Amino acid sequence: MKPGTRALGVAESFGDGPRSTLGGAVVRADRAVEAFEFGTCTVGGTDSTAAVGDLWTRLDRPDVRWLLLAGIAPAWFNVLDIRSLGERLDRPVLAVTFEASDESLSAALERELSGDALAERRATFERQPPRTRLHVDGETLFVRAVGCSDDEAHEAVRAFTHEGGRPEPLRVAKEAARAARAFREREGGRRR
């Protein structure tokens, strides 16, 4: 992959409030950070897919080739529809997770939710591609990919992972989301 290839990493940070902060970071394969964008989604809601799509649109960077997401269920089971995002953005979308869960997301959804809330999230989750295992820098990652083959997805994740087993766009996006959430919480406290 060329050093100037760009990915948007999106990660979340949530505190005690009803909204989770989404941080987006455009990072090149050579680790240069070029841009940030932010958004929010509802903790326990169903608006994360729209929120990520809107973040992408506001960013307005047609040169970004990949969208990397930190997981598939941010903000307490606000399940992302990566197939829908791939169609909307016309780019490969990769949801990367870092833990081999003993319990599937489906089982966690059933334990925590019921009725229509469970049915909607389960339907979204079941439409997504399966995870594939990837070993990078001594770490095991799990990748769901749309808009590209699993081999292409693995190549992209490796190209953006320089150390520690975390793709740089996701690492930077997580730090940005944390900082933005902390800022919002401090500013919100000052307005009272």
Automatic annotation (TrEMBL):
Belongs to the UPF0215 family. PANTHER family: UPF0215 PROTEIN MJ1150. This is UPF0215 protein N0B31_17795. InterPro entries: Endo_dU (IPR002802). HAMAP family: UPF0215. Gene3D superfamilies: archaeoglobus fulgidus dsm 4304 superfamily. It comes from Salinirubellus salinus. Transmembrane segments: none annotated.
